[in-house]
Amino acid sequence: MKFNSWKWKPIVAALAAVTAMSALSACGEGGNSGGSGSYPSKPIVVVAPSGAGGGWDKTARALTKVLGEAKLVDKTMTVENKPGGGGAVFMAEYATQDKKNPYRLFVSSPPILINNLKKEGNSPYGYKDTTPLAQLTKDYGAIVVRADSRHADIQSLMAELKADPSKVTVAGGSAPGSMDHLITVLPAYKAGIDPKAVKYVSYDGGGEAIAALLGGNADAIGTDISSASEYLKAGKVRVLGITSPERLAGDFKDVPTLKESGIDAEFTIWRGVFGPKEMTDDQKAYWAEKLKALSDSDAWKKELAANAWEPEFKGADDFASFLGEQEKMIQELLTALGMAK
C-alpha cells in the first residue's frame, strides 16, 4: 500500500499538541513543583524552627499575618513550630525531605550559618541547601554592663580582659559557639585578645543572661540591642558598644559603635525567609515580588515598630551574597575559638 505522508500530518500535529498540553498540566500541578502560572495553588506553611514566642516565631507570624491581611498572597498561610538544636533538627528534615516543596518556607537568622560551621553539635546542612528569598529585618549585637559597672566604655572592659581574662565573667543567652557567644567574644578577638581565654557563661535565653548581669553574676553580657532596650531606658544597664556600622537613632543615639571605639568589628543579626533548594524560576519570581511588596507596606512597618525591629530588605541575590560574606566572618571567629569543624 502506498504511504501518503500528507494525510498523516494533521493527525501527528494533533497528537503532538495533546502531548504538550498534558506535559504542561503535569508541570503545573504535579507533585510539589507548583509549576508555571499555577503557583501557589494550595495553602503555604511558614516554619519557625523554634518554640513559640521567640524571634523566629514572631517573624513568621508577622510575615504570614501581613501577607494575608494585605491580600498580597491569596492562599491560606499558617505557621508551624519545629524546635530543636537551634534550628539544626528542622534543617536536617527540610534539606532532605522538602527540597522540592515550594509550599513550605521558613525563617532563619545567623544560626543557620553557625550550626553548619561549628564542630560540636553541627548540622551538615546550611543556607546553600536552601533558596534564600529575602532578608527582612536586622538587629545588632551589644556589649552590656550594669549601670553601676566599673567599666564606663568598651576600652576599659578590653583592658581588664587583656590584663587578666580570668577575672572577668562574660555571659550570653546561648551555648558556647552560638550567636550570643560570638557577639560576646567578637570585640575581644578584634582587640587582639585570645577568645578562648575569655570566661564565658551560657544561660538559657537572653532574659536569664540579663538577670545574671543585674544580679551580679556576670560583669558583661553579649546580646542583641533590641533585647537591652527596656533595661537601658529604665537606667538599669549601660551599653558599651554595638556591632552596627554606624550609630543607631532613638534610644541608642548615645551608644557608640565598636568601630567608633577603635575596634573594627561588625555583626548583623538578620532575619530572612528561605525556600527549598530546588525552586523554579517562576516560584522565585513570585516570592521576589511578594516579599518586596511586604517590605514596602505600611502594615509591615507597623509590625517592625511593634517588635522593635530595624527594616533591612535584601532581595534574593543580594541576600545570598551577604550570607556568603557573613559565613566567612563566622568561620574566622569559630576557628579562633577552636570550635570550627
TrEMBL record:
The record's listing under InterPro entries reads: BUG (IPR005064), Bug_dom1 (IPR042100)
Quick check: keyword rRNA-binding in the entry? no
Signal peptide residues are 1-25
Entry's Pfam families?
Answer: TctC
Keywords of the record: Signal
Q: Which superkingdom?
A: Bacteria
Q: Which CDD domains does the UniProt entry name for this protein?
A: PBP2_Bug_TTT
Q: Note the Gene3D superfamilies from the entry.
A: Bordetella uptake gene, domain 1, Periplasmic binding protein-like II
Question: Into which family does the record put it?
Answer: Belongs to the UPF0065 (bug) family.
Q: What is this protein called?
A: Tripartite tricarboxylate transporter substrate binding protein
> What organism is recorded for this protein?
Paenibacillus albicereus
